[in-house]
Write a structure and sequence with these properties.
Oligomer: single chain
CATH topology of the largest domain: Creatine Amidinohydrolase
Largest sheet: 5 strands, mixed
Structural class: alpha+beta
Bound molecules: glycine, manganese (II) ion
Number of domains: 2
CATH superfamily of the largest domain: Creatinase/methionine aminopeptidase superfamily
Distance between the termini: 37 Å
């Protein structure tokens, strides 16, 4: 948890922002509860709601809060433990002292929350809430407000349909704040990245013919469990990198393949890292692997070189796709005008995902509040083309944004077959040549970037080896 002034300041900024948006009533925040895995006393590891963490920091279940947008009062709602809880959990600080550690003066029992929300609604005061991530919180909000499930998850302006839905103004105010990282958050992200660096280094050192992918996953996840909260998302570690989010780890490492490792750490204060490296399983790239790898590596470097305040990440994605097409053209995998290929979205055949996403308390930061609302400026519209259409962060960059830079090239047999059958890209794609890569797999190379005043810097203190010679060298020095 950060110091209490951090949370008080954030809530004051939120209050001002909501008032500037002309909003009245109350803002209702609901923290997460325990999530049973099989039965109520055997739960998944507790993970707090990220917006709750941002404004209140209290990292435990069963909490809610109200900020009154008119008189500015703040109240945390939760129950003190009783003797039964103490027997099983040990002594706990009082709710009042927990609230004070987040800079909140008032606390009340959890059971008072319904009355407080009900009183506001009876007076016709708007109740602002965020669309919940967890079903349990959807049900809580349904009970508190009497709204349907669909209404709880619908985000609209509060003056629309008398505010019977999640609050667009609150969503926009929260996104505006969480998108631009504060110094303490940048430090936390750097720490998560240093932990991610250690995870990937351990994984690289573990790669050898005959080991099962799952054993490497265990080694790398042990690092972040030992020093941080755990992984920031389910680890991707696969010799079938052409499947973008392949979570199977059942294959034996086979020399001659490419191993995509896309994994990140979540620190103890819950900030994420997200790195991808692609390793030659036998320690050396084949010439064909090195050719494709070098294009992806150039694209990663290129995106880094052009990203800076003022450019949109959409432009960075498009210009990086251009760079990729130039490289693929040099290899004879595509032909014709690169400008025309950019317009036609030909890069989507090889990279059917976006260049990157926002990162912070969530590895895909705030996507629970709406992917487009988080990743697109109001004047931007998501494209429909394969690849560009999957871009999750398109906004104009400003200092404090943290985004991933993760180009990739994949040879996906089913996608190549579909484009060929449909005639998509027929003037540009050399399908005969592309088909010879059907057993190639995929390559993705991902760093995390902080937008600074003049450009970007990579987060974390050390960069994982990425240039082909450096990767081979690092695999020798185990
Ligand atoms: N690293 C996983 C993702 O960005 O989706
Ligand atoms: Mn990523």
């Amino acid at each position: 948890m950060f110091d209490k002034d951090t949370y008080s300041r954030r809530r004051r900024t939120l209050l001002t922002s909501m008032r500037e948006r002309g909003q009245k009533g109350i803002a209702l925040f609901i923290g997460n509860d325990e999530a049973p895995a099989q039965y109520k006393d055997n739960c998944y590891k507790f993970r707090q709601d990220s917006s709750w963490l941002y404004y209140f920091g209290l990292d435990e279940p069963g909490m809610a809060a109200i900020i009154d947008l008119e008189d500015g009062t703040e109240t945390v709602y939760a129950d003190d433990v009783d003797i039964d809880d103490i027997i099983w959990m040990g002594p706990q600080p009082s709710v009042q002292s927990k609230a004070e550690s987040a800079g909140v003066i008032r606390s009340a029992p959890a059971g008072d929350l319904a009355a407080a929300v009900g009183a506001a609604m009876n007076l016709g005061r708007p109740v602002h809430f965020l669309p919940p991530t967890r079903h349990g919180n959807t049900i809580k909000l349904m009970e508190l407000t009497g709204l349907s499930k669909a209404r709880i998850n619908k985000v609209a302006p509060m003056d629309c349909e008398k505010g019977s839905h999640a609050s667009q103004e609150l969503v926009d105010a929260v996104i505006a704040m969480r998108l631009v990282k504060e110094e303490c958050e940048i430090k936390a992200i750097d720490e998560a990245c240093d932990l991610g660096y250690e995870m990937h280094t351990a994984a690289r050192n573990a790669v050898r013919p005959g080991i099962v992918e799952q054993e490497i996953v265990g080694i790398m996840e042990g690092i972040t469990l030992g020093k941080g909260w755990g992984v920031s998302f389910p680890t991707i570690l696969t010799q079938h990198g052409e499947t973008l989010h392949n979570h199977l780890h059942d294959k034996i490492i086979d020399p001659g393949k490419l191993l995509v490792i896309d994994a990140g750490a979540e620190s103890n204060v819950h900030y994420a890292s997200d790195f991808t490296r692609t390793l030659p399983t036998g320690g050396r790239f084949t010439p064909r692997q090195r050719d494709i790898y070098s294009i992806v590596c150039d694209c990663n470097e290129f995106a880094f070189s052009i990203a800076k305040p003022g450019i949109t990440y959409r432009e960075v994605h498009i210009e990086t796709s251009r760079k990729m097409l130039e490289g693929l053209k040099d290899l004879g995998l595509v032909r014709g005008s690169v400008d025309d290929m950019v317009t036609e979205g030909i890069a989507g055949l090889f990279m059917p995902h976006g260049l990157g996403h926002n990162m912070g308390l969530d590895v895909h930061d705030m996507e629970d509040l709406g992917e487009d609302r988080v990743g697109y400026d109001p004047d931007q519209k998501r494209a429909s083309q394969l690849g560009l259409g999957s871009l999750r962060m398109a906004r104009r960059l400003v200092p404090g944004h943290v985004v991933t830079d993760e180009p990739g090239i994949y040879f996906i047999p089913a996608l190549m077959a579909k484009w060929k059958a449909d005639g998509t890209g027929k003037d540009f794609v050399n399908f005969a040549k592309a088909e010879t890569y059907s057993d190639f797999g995929g390559i993705r190379l991902e760093d995390d970037l902080l937008v600074t005043e003049n450009g970007v810097r990579r987060t974390g203190t050390k960069r994982l080896p990425i240039f082909p010679d450096d990767v081979e060298e690092s695999m020798k020095q185990k």
